[in-house]
Design brief:
heterodimer; A: 122 residues; alpha/beta; 4 helices; globular; B: 400 residues; 9-stranded mixed beta sheet; 28 strands
Chain lengths: 122, 400
């Protein structure tokens, strides 16, 4: 059974791009357009990993991260943002990885692979 | 070096029931005019630490009121504050799951203040300590974490986190409430107990809190945060005697009615170990402006008398006798009444010819004429809490 990844991204074109690229890697994909939807997807869809944008309407990624961790501690979460400043935010340290957005998804894909592998070993 | 103090004031204090029926443990009155938390707060101010948060959770109204009335004394424009933060469910619809979770859920205050060091304190200990000395020790040792430690008799090991140190006072072992503790080298009857006082480097604390939040844990400092750090970073114990402002090594966790009673009674000694009269280390509190205490009547059988006791403003000893007792503000003792070895809280009224012995009487209780408390414990136990050592506790507002 393939791993299920939840992509949380408010910008539609990017969301589609990440969805296509990660599907091509063989993952099942869930999507959400903001933090609130993401929390619902975590409860309903039971993803194996979450790629979480930070700057989003309705509920931002940092608050979402905190809330998801209260519900489930085991799902690896990658913060995925255009900004490097959020590394200064203590809460960002609670994520399993911090990846700066780029058209080249090599780093993101590698982190996804590594974290799923690590989580399987746990 | 910017230091932020966080006082953990959320404890339920169940073993202090019924004194904690209507208030959090740090808000329990102590020593006639104080609340327990006044000691940690006074230590902060006397140590020149002027950025203090107190985290509360249960039954915090009286604690909030006390801190607002008594501790709004800092200079906000200079960045100083003593602020109470109630549980706010910022992260989820959940109360704090443990002492570590209380800080984790308030991570934003660390983010906002960006201190270099965090001083984590318990809000329910009675002692006088210069935290600056502990902080200086932390900095000098380039420590990640420093834990305040005090020598205790080994028979008390089940009540404490027991620290094992090397000759440099580096912590090499930690047992939480062990039956068979590691004793202090060269002192087979002594253990080094954690006082629940921690100095953390900010990054060390944040990383530990996050790791703990992401693991199955009871989220408690003593049980979950400290043990995994032993042997990994620079972790030292700090000898309380080096920071003690009382010079007698006085430190009490007044966790039970017995301990609470004894700690109060310590104050009536001729020279108490806990000296409240030292002008260089004032213990501050809130005091309403009541008139001075007074005694009246001086007839042979009806003499207003107070001996070996602590009495407060607003007290009137009117033809009754008070021995070895602690009287909070506005306690009245009427004619022919006797109060011995007891603690009367604010507004307690002892009616004519009543006899009170070895009792703690909570706020605003009016003891009717000729009532006896503490003379027949079997009878007392039908109405009040009576501890194994025979202390009778009458709860707040009880109608008799």
């Amino acid at each position: 059974m393939s791993n299920k990844i939840l992509i949380v991204e408010d910008e539609e074109s990017l969301r589609l791009y990440y969805e296509e690229e990660l599907k091509a890697e063989g993952y099942d994909i869930l999507t959400a357009t903001n933090g609130r939807e993401a929390i619902q997807q975590v409860e309903k869809g039971k993803p194996d990993l979450i790629v979480l944008d930070i700057v989003m309407p309705v509920m931002d990624g940092m608050e979402t991260l905190g809330r998801i961790l209260r519900k489930t501690r085991k799902i690896p979460i990658i913060l995925h943002t255009s900004y490097t400043d959020y590394r200064q935010d203590f809460m960002s340290w609670a994520a399993d990885a911090y990846v700066t957005k780029s058209a080249d998804l090599t780093e993101l894909k590698k982190k996804v692979r590594d974290l799923l592998e690590k989580n399987k070993a746990r | 070096m910017k230091v932020l103090a966080i006082i953990l004031a959320g404890g339920r204090g169940e073993r202090l029931y019924p004194l904690t029926r209507d208030r959090a443990k740090p808000a329990v009155p102590f020593g006639a005019i104080y609340r327990i938390i006044d000691f940690s707060l006074s230590n902060c101010l006397n140590s020149n630490i002027r950025q203090v948060y107190a985290l509360t959770q249960y039954k915090s109204t009286s604690l909030h009121r006390h801190i607002q009335l008594g501790w709004s004394i800092l200079c906000a424009p200079l960045g100083e504050f003593i602020e109470v933060i109630p549980a706010q469910q910022r992260v989820d619809e959940e109360w704090y799951q443990g002492t570590a979770d209380a800080i984790y859920q308030n991570m934003y205050i660390l983010q906002d203040e960006r201190p270099d060091l965090i001083l984590v304190l318990a809000g329910d200990h009675i002692y006088k300590m210069d935290y600056r000395k502990m902080i200086a020790h932390h900095v000098e040792k380039k420590a990640d974490l420093t834990i305040g430690a005090i020598r205790m008799d080994r028979r008390f090991s089940r009540e404490f986190g027991v620290i094992e140190i090397d000759p440099e006072w580096r912590i090499v072992g930690f047992q939480e409430k062990p039956d068979d503790p590691r004793t202090i080298p060269g002192d087979p009857e002594g253990i080094l107990a954690s006082m629940g006082i921690y100095v953390f480097n900010i990054e060390t604390l944040v990383r530990r809190l996050i790791d703990d939040a992401r693991s199955d844990s009871s989220h408690d400092f003593g049980k979950d945060i400290i043990p995994p750090m032993i042997g990994k970073g620079q972790i030292f114990a700090f000898d309380f005697r080096k920071g003690d402002q009382g010079e007698a090594g006085y430190w009490r966790d007044v966790g039970t009615i017995e301990a609470y009673y004894e700690a109060n009674m310590d104050l009536i000694a001729v020279t108490p170990q806990l000296n409240l009269y030292d002008p260089s280390w004032p213990i501050l509190t809130y005091q309403a402006p009541y008139p001075p205490a007074k005694t009246v009547h001086a007839e042979k059988e009806r003499m207003g008398t107070v001996v070996n006791s602590v009495i407060s403003n607003g007290c009137i000893i009117s033809g009754g006798t008070v021995r070895r007792s602690i009287l909070s503000p506005r306690a009245h003792v009427h004619s022919f009444a006797e109060v011995e070895d007891s603690i009367l809280f604010e507004g307690v009224d002892i009616g004519r010819s009543a006899k009170i012995r070895k009792a703690i009487i909570d706020k605003e209780v009016h003891i009717p004429q000729e009532t006896e408390i503490g003379y027949n414990l079997e009878e007392d136990a039908k109405r009040f809490t009576v501890t194994p050592s025979g202390i009778v506790v009458v709860p707040k507002w009880m109608k008799l």
